[in-house]
Every structure is written in C-alpha cells, then in structure tokens.
Amino acid sequence: MPYVEHLIARGRIVDPTPLTRPFREADLLRALEAADSARLSTAEWEMVKKAVAELRRRERGPTARLDLHVGGAASSHARRDALREAGTGHGTVSGGAGLTLLMGPVVAVTHPYFDTRLKYDPDWYGKKDRAVAGRTAEAYVSAQLRYAELFFGSMDRNWGPSAVQGILLSDSPYGLEHLGITLGTGGVRVEGIAAQLNSLTDTAGAIHNRYMVQHRLWIRPPGRWTVALWEGSVVEGVGRQLEPWYLNLMGLGVLAQVNTNTSVNSFVGFDAQRRGPVTLFAQGMLDDIQVDSKTTTDRKPDSYGLTLGAQGNLGVASGSWTAFYTRISNLAYRNEDNFQAPIYFGLGTGRNFSDYDQVTLRVSLLTPHSSLLTPELTLLRQGEGDLHLAHPPAAAYDSTRAFLSGVVERTLRLAVGYRLLAGPWSLAGDGGVHLISNAGHVSGATKTRWVGTIGLTYRYRKESLLP
Known about the structure:
The chain is mainly beta. The chain is built from 5 helices and 22 strands.
C-alpha cells in the first residue's frame, strides 16, 4: 500500500475509490493496468508491473489462496504509531497464515497470526501474560455484487482522506467486528456499518451494552471531485439492543434520536477531495456545537474535528509530497453519558487522541531498486484533554477549554521511513528524533527521544483451484 499511495500522490494512477480504504483488489488492478507507461519513470513502471503480477489472479474459477509470512523486528517502542510511541522496546518475532477463498462474487478471508510485540503494546487489549500473543488481522465473508456488497467480519477500514486516519472510522481499533452494507454504482453509493462495541460495567455492577452505527453517502460525479456526507450514532444502555431506526441504512440517526427521544451520541461529518496536479482534501466532524448561551448547559465547549491537506508530484527523483493539518477538540467523542464514547476495547474507532492538532509534511521518493524513502516533518501539540476521561459536569463548562487544555506538550518529529521489496523478502523501518517540550504536560520539562523500528519479513504465496 505505501507504494500504491505513492503512485496515486504522484498522479501516475487514478485513485480507484477516493476517501475509502482498503481497495477491492479488482478495482486497484484496473487502475494499475490503466497506467500510462510513457508517463512513468523506470522505477515506477517496475513497481506497477510488480503490483499487477501480485494482484492478477493465476487461476480461473473457485480458488483458494494461501499467504504465509514470518518475520522479525526491533523497535524502540511497542505502539504502532511512531509519533505517539509508547511501550517497551524489544526485539520481536511474528508469523501467520492468510487463507482467501474466491468463489465468484463471494470472498471469504481469515488471517490469524502471532506477534510478540502485542504483549508490550499499551493499546492491545488481549492477554499479555504469555510469551506469544496472537490475533486475527482479517476475518470476514463478503458478497460483492454489481450494485451491492454485503460484508460481515473484521477488516481495517478508513473513511476519509487516505493520508490521515479517519475522524470517526479508521484502522485505530484492533479488529472491529462489523456488518457492512454498500448499495450503488461507481459514482454514487450508500454505505453503512454496524458494530457492537465492548460492554462496560458501571459502579453499581450493571452491564451497559454499547453499539455504533455509521452511514455515508459517497458521490463521485464526472470530473475531479469526490464528496462523502456521513453520520455516526453511539447508543448504550443496560440491557439495550440496537434499535432498527438506527440500523436502517436509508434513515438518518440524527432524526431518529429526536423523533424517538432515545439517548444517543450523534456525529455528523463530511469528506471531500479534488483530484488535480495538486490534489486537495478535507474532512470535518461536528459533535456538539452550541448556538444558544442562555443556560449553563448551553455553554458546553464546542466538539469538532477537522483535517485540511494537499498532495502532489514533487517533480524530481520520482517523488511525491503530502502535507496536512488536523485538529481534534478537547471534548470531541466524549458525551454527558460516558458510555457513549466511540471506543472499542480502549481504542477510538477513529482517532485515539483528542485535544490536539498536528501539521505534517511528508515526502516520498521511489528509487530504481524498489525502495521507498519517506522523510517526515511533524509538529504535534497535545493538550491534557483525553477521550478516555469522563465528561466534565455542566458546572465546569466555563472553566473547560474547548481546545488545548492545561499544559500543552509539543513534539517535533524529524524522521525518515524506508521500505525495500526484493522478491519474497521485504525490509521496512523508520528512524528519527522527537524533540519534546513541556514533556508529560510539565511546564519547562524537555525530552529528546530517539525512536526507530526495523523489520524483515518473508512471504510465500500459493494459489490453486478448489475441487
């Protein structure tokens, strides 16, 4: 995917499904096959041919594909996000097996694997008292019809610009099990997902059932624009079940909340992208925006999220560039009902942090030997707000900052990533320095952190017809 995103940013291939990740293999294959070799550098053309060879099916008919992988890595931290590095650094080993069954329009996938890194990752919710920790990266069944898709299982999704995690739906949580439905064409689609979030227990011992539903209208008219309008609803209650008026793909959860007078944390938002020599993208979310200020509850700080960015062709050395600014307010995701935060086993379903803003400039350079260099410059400002904290009472609204509360920690990240493909072998890593001021939200405290990760992976693939 880093190579594919590089080719898209360079304008060498057309994004098959803007504002949507992952791709369908068939959609990506068509985009790669349509690439104009006359506009590609030698390195880019070689990468396109490698990707086409990897994606093109080798058999015709019901097929089983087995993907095996084993690898080792060393890292200064255990969390997946290098910018938010945390956890103890260790040498780790991993391995797994992916099985894909292709039966006409029906696809079934399972990909269990083990990774010793998980037991050191502060974001991993599973068992950490064993020598080896494991999980299933993908496990789903999907019926992919011409004008519809029905999906059930777990797979990382990102709704929004691909350069940044989606505000309400991203790959942040580990293995979000969900039901997904898509209806429409290549130009207009209605999409929805429904998931049961993990149940939580209150101080009285009562178990609260929690659910999340998201709907999206995705439009790509002829021309350069792609726009998506979306909403999300998080419902909870002791013994509560997911009501059909929230589950309804063609209904609006924000209206159902008003008309049924039921408790829900509602979100509305948009994604937009304009393709061109410089591709522009944006994403926005509204949670609670107060218009009146007559009562104490009207003075609740605004809750919102925003991303603005651009990417384009660097013009030299088969390079591309991406720049974006993103902001999540202090109380974004939180609600007066603390069980209605969009959190799945401790991780936000979109972003896992709030009360911060970030500006990032990233360059991607493809060398003639299938290696990809990605220098990065990021400035992060993090307030003391946290989506995992309890919502403040109404009496504290006047003293609660809407953005960058408390002592603001600042991190300047200077880093470079590296990837190399050599047959079945792949080498990937990144290294850099984090210059942190007001470290740990302590005024005047400074810290310099050298961070890095390097990993080597071997992959084997076998494909054959089903009997």
